Amino acid sequence: MANRSRNPPPSIPTTLALCEPAARLEAAPSNDIIDLEDNPGFDTQDSDIILLEPASALQILDLTASSALPSKPVEHPCPGYKLVIPDGGSPYSSYPFLIHTKHVVPWQLQVVKQDLILYSTSCSGIAGNSNQSGASFHPCSYCAHLHNHNMIMGIRHRNLDGAHEMTPWQYLTPAHMLSLLQRKTNQNNLLKLRLLKAAGKISHRNRHLDAWKRLSIAVGREEIPRLRALIAAEHRRGGSIFTILDKIDRAARRVYHPRGYERADFQRAFLIYKLGGFSTHRIVQRTLGVPSIDATKRHIVTVPLTSSPAIPTSTEIRENLSICYPPPNDLPNQAGGPITGMTMQVDEIKIQERLRWDPCTNMILGICREHGQKCVLEFRTITQAEEIQRLLISKHVHLATEHVLKRFRNTSTRAKGFLLDGVAISSSVIKAHLISNGMDTMTADSLLMPNDKQDVVLMIKLLYAISSLTDCGQEESPSVKATRRVLRLLGRVYFNLLQPYLNTTLSLDDQLSHLSTAAHLILALYNRDKGNFIPVQLYFDVMSMIKNVYFCVAKAQIDNPQSCFYIILLGTDGLEKVFGIVRTMISNDSHVDQLQLTNRIDGAVQCAKILQEHPEWGGESRRLRATPLPNTSSDVTSSYDHINPASMTGDLKVENIILQSCWQRGRRVAEEILKAAKIMSPFEWMEHSGDYDILCPFGNNKMILVDGLLAGEREETDEERGDSIDALLHKPAWTLSNPSVPDTVPDSLSKDDGPDIDDLSGELELDASKLVGTNTAWVAIDSDAHSKKVHKASILRIFSSGLSASDSKDRLKRVRGYSQYNETTNCATVLAPDPDNPVEVRVEDPALVLVRCCGAVFLGLFQVLSIRVNSSYVQSLSTNLIHEPNVQFYGQIMTLKAHDISYQSDGPDWEWNGTYEAKSVFWVDGKFVELMDPEIMRSSTLSPDQSCNTYAFSTLELREFAAMMYEKHLSELWRLPEVHESTTYPYRTAEGGQKFFSIFSHIFIQSLI
After folding, report:
1. How far apart are CA 625 and CA 643, in angstroms?
2. What percentage of the chain's residues is helix, strand, coil (to nearest 5)?
3. Residue 365 — φ and ψ, nearest 5°?
4. Model confidence pTM above 0.70
5. How many contiguous H segments (helices) and E segments (strands) does the chain have?
6. Under 8 Å CB-to-CB from 426, ≥6 apart: which residues?
7. C-alpha angle 720-723-724 in degrees, rounded to nearest 5
8. pLDDT greater than 60 at residue 480
9. For residues 362 and 379, is the Cβ–Cβ distance under 8 A?
10. Which of 376, 482, 733, 818 has the fewest CB atoms within 10 Å, i.e. the most exposed one?
């Protein structure tokens, strides 16, 4: 930029006064102005220039002397006109610099930081409207008039509204030019794309022309039988020239015969129709010539099972068994030879919770079998449907669902956690120990995120990671050591359950010993903790699984002593494949309902048989082989799901097995594990009593589940079964709060357009097979003889639409944005830490809280099990954030024991004895929690061989905390968590035969009445 020159107005004095530093100035007339910028040696930034009265000579004044100061105020230079730049813009991209190459403009510009300043060529150099207050200065009149200049106005408007596409290039800013260039580039790319498409069309047509040439060459060279019939048949099917060439090539190689179909052709057509549907089969039939659907159904017959509306009867069971296991016609004579055993796999599948009408039996399906006897399920009038809806809303009956078998992981990761040996374990506690054992945070989050309850690989990784936990270091806190002891015990349970099924190098003897160890450990822990450990269904299932393995090995030793036994074949892998085929067959739903399952399960079994007969079609499992279990859980891959016998390398012959030896060895190992975990083994007194076994864990020959739940046992929760909690919260309000049938249901029936396509198709299939009989599908919605009749399937669909959980197992709902699983949040950091306060409270740290017990308020020391901020779980939190309203703590009361009962102890007189209050687990708002730094000292309550460090407290310090917390929360005592009284809580000690509370004086024990 050229230096701007400013002409001073006539009224300004022309004599200069220079201050430090001194400068060499060239002589000038007294009435002239010296251009300091043109004078070498003068630094204008280090000098002060003051204009004085006219004088005959240049005066150099010392401004430090008060007498040298001029009498008139100092004039300020003109700041120029500031061109307004849009928000986010830059002065370098918002000004048309090329305008200076085409026009002589009356201004000069200067960029100061991010401001664009324009100076008029006639600038006076003096700021206008200046004052002595130091306020901002306005530009001179010449620069201010630039605001209304046509070119300046155009620049401003184009910056705000954009430039017109016909604007000359010299008026465009760099930003406008860049946008124009991008537009031109897009146009060029579009033209290139059109050219590419045109080339593709030409290439496609050239391929067709080449194909017709190849056809003429093939007809001229090859001797192909029934060529005319082949081409005519393909033309009727709408085959393309490429299909015709393929058939001609196969016919020339004698691998295709135009007439007739083979058994494999019907099997292929059956698979395509069942798995892909009618449209897919039609496409494949037209392109590959597979048999038609009608011809396929005549060759492969499927029979629907009988669906039980309530508890299955013996007649229904026999009928379904005869369908699943027809009498064998070609079974070889095995008289005198070894007997090959078979297993009937039993598993449960998640079904859609809705009511369905069975046109074959005229029964209402979809009611849970436990309560089906409470209602009339035969559908004759609308009265039966209305009564069932009333019972569903009042919770007397329930919609049918299922229990899953992979539940150890679900129990370990549920929000409430579980208790083992009186120690509460939450997913946050497990995460802390996994990370301290070397696992990274991201991996731990993925293993503990309870979304997909059926992910086998994640289940294996989590259980294997827990089983790989090592002992704590001596530097860890006492609470961490206590929790690690319990987690290592739990890890031994998981280890002995995983090894028989995943370690491909084990012998059958080792597998049975591991299962025996797992059974004895689970028996001892369930006898001790009952439902706090695992639900009763999970205990029954795992014990039945282990019992079944031992019984099957015993039968194999009698039937075929020389055989090998694969315990992995006792699983439900085959049924899982069939269930997967069923889900593929039901269109957009990934969950079947009860009627869909019974109508399609036989077809799914036929598909599984066909794929097993033709593995070259791609139906075999891709995970054929698996290596022995790795050293770390991170190395566990999907190859450990669906392991087959080919992967097993150990000695699996049943003739080398003594079952009692394997069982006793497992018991000895279990006793050693319990001893290491400081738990007394119960097996000796159980054996002495004589009425205990793995299915009667509480003696008296009372079998679990069969004889009902005992005190302390519990059933599985929705969270452990894998049900979507979010879906339960989206039920209609009238189904949760109003037990009566809504008045809008009859209107919905009167406006219903008819049954679903699935209902009609099922009815037509049964009608074609002559199984429907005389059951009518339509029923009147009221007693009026002229009342509108509605399809029974429509009535049940409307009545149950608001009663089932709208989870996103329906893929169409997932497209709309609904989550498939019960989404939870588990992030590492939610609130920003305070850099000035690096102290944090972490999971497993001790803390203080006021609790209600026995109608009074007491102080409690608890261990932090989880920290929740809003709906997110964190592992640590800054201490200055614990009292925020969105912070909650999940904890368990720690048991304290007095070791110094003197009246006034000089030091700590209470210590943690390493145990917890089993029934004192609670959630509490962070506002009621206070932190303290307890002393760590050698425990005096344990025996010398068990002595270790523990937390120690003084009565005086605890009383001070109690008084402060009580006064702080006096108006909110009703919001405090409530815990159960035990022999060790509230904290007390015995002295002189009397028990008295040592933490609170009588002032702080207030009644809650």
Report:
1. 7
2. 40, 15, 45
3. -105, 160
4. no
5. 29, 24
6. 415, 416, 417, 843, 865, 866, 890
7. 125
8. yes
9. yes
10. 733
